[in-house]
Write a structure and sequence with these properties.
By secondary structure, the protein is an alpha/beta fold. It has one domain: TIM Barrel. 42% of the residues lie in helices and 14% in strands. An eight-stranded parallel barrel has the order 1-2-3-4-7-8-9-12, surrounded by five helices. It has a two-stranded antiparallel sheet with strand order 5-6. It is globular, with a radius of gyration of 20 Å. The protein starts with 14 loop residues before the first strand and ends in a 14-residue tail after the last helix. The N terminus and C terminus are likely disordered. InterPro entries: DMSO2_SphG, Luciferase-like_dom, Luciferase-like_sf, SsuD_RutA_monooxygenase.
Length: 382
């Protein structure tokens, strides 16, 4: 398969995002040293570095209580706004849970953040995998497909409030009557409202993406796995005349030699925090296996996969800069628009990625006929 995402995107080069480490413990559940800090000062510097070397997006994580190696966490929407105000071009995606948020309240926050940042606010709607958070907060825990029905209605309401006057909805989960939000978020050609991302792996998640979301985030996948997901989402979106873009999670281990990169992976897994990984596995696999067709997130994840809790090793962005760049471009040919990257030591590894990997990606994309992205690094990184 060498199909681009849509005709509009046929010659568009890859976009890059990074996981914001606003949660303690880094991006792997391991006792290996991680020179990464979950505090705001570190993250403000990191956002400015990522913006300078060519990252277009950042995704703030959301957890509400201590769990599975993540003892401390900053709230995602407020943290995202802080990063937006600390940068000039970076788009920051705040992860939120329906069930914890009322869509009218989030729509108001999003409109304000969008104005304050010059139109750079985005949201990632998380349908929820952690039952313990909901029960600890006294909120009802819905079954898997019901969570996605609620998320779809949440997104429908969010977009309606952002774009319509006197918004009215009589839904199963949310109801609005002649609701006016002013000011609306900033809009521009191709952007009538802040971008809406979602994750998920199940059939319900894929169908929801095809009907209502702007972006579909996948856990780590090989080429065959992402082909299947893109095909399924497009099968729903295309008859509706909708365009959905695709993001892929990948944990990046870029080193001067292939042997060094794979030794780092070996050490991460060897030093895994086994009780934390097993606790996370028990929580997420009950969610994944609760789907009728067994296609839920993490349903087939191994222990090693779950050491990086979004299956990031599976994407195999591990090796020399040239090897990683070649794999990124191959995924782009298969329709992946954006790469959501995690790192062991965020600050220095994002600098290395910008200096050593991204220039090779751009060279390969230019040779293949992909147009440069508008979000070029502020300075030459090579």
């Amino acid at each position: 398969m060498s199909a681009p995402n849509t005709p509009d995107d046929e010659l568009q080069a890859s976009k890059f995002a990074y996981w914001v480490p606003n949660v303690s413990g880094g991006l792997v559940t391991s006792t290996i040293e991680q020179r990464t800090d979950w505090g705001f000062d570190y993250n403000r510097k990191l956002a400015r570095t990522a913006e300078a070397v060519g990252f277009e997006y950042a995704l703030s994580q959301v957890r509400y209580m201590a769990s599975y190696g993540a003892e401390f966490q900053h709230e995602s929407t407020s943290f995202s706004l802080g990063l937006l105000l600390a940068t000039e071009r970076l788009k920051v995606i705040a992860a939120v849970h329906p069930g914890m948020w009322q869509p009218g309240v989030l729509a108001k926050l999003g409109a304000t953040a969008d104005h304050m940042s010059g139109g750079r606010f985005a949201v990632n709607v998380v349908s929820g995998w952690f039952k313990g958070e909901f029960t600890a907060m006294g909120e009802p825990w819905l079954e898997h497909d019901e969570r996605y029905r609620r998320s779809e209605e949440f997104i429908t309401a969010l977009k309606g409030i952002w774009t319509e006057e006197g918004y009215t909805l009589g839904g199963d989960f949310y109801r609005f009557r002649d609701f006016d939000l002013k000011p609306k978020p900033l809009s521009s050609p191709g952007r009538p409202h802040p971008e809406v991302f979602q994750g998920g792996n199940s059939t319900a998640a894929r169908q929801m993406a095809g009907r209502v979301s702007d972006w579909y985030f996948s856990n780590g996948k090989d080429l065959a796995g992402i082909d299947e997901q893109i095909r399924d989402v497009r099968a729903v979106a295309d008859p509706l005349g909708r365009r959905v873009r695709f993001g892929l999670n990948g944990f990046v281990i870029a080193r001067d030699t292939e042997a060094e990169a794979h030794e780092t992976l070996r050490e991460i897994v060897a030093k895994a925090n086994r009780p934390a990984v097993e606790g996370f596995r028990d929580a997420v696999q009950q969610a994944g296996n609760s789907t009728g067709d067994g296609k839920g997130m993490w349903a087939d994840s191994s222990f090693e996969d779950l050491v990086q809790y979004n299956d990031g090793f599976r994407t195999n962005l591990i090796g020399t800069p040239e090897q990683i760049a070649e794999r990124i471009v191959e995924f782009r040919r298969h329709g992946v628009d954006l790469f959501l990257c995690g790192f062991l030591h965020f600050q220095e590894e994002i600098e290395y990625f910008g200096a050593r990997v991204l220039p090779v990606v751009r060279e390969l994309e230019a040779a293949a006929g992909f147009a440069p992205t508008e979000f070029a690094p502020a300075t030459a990184a090579r």
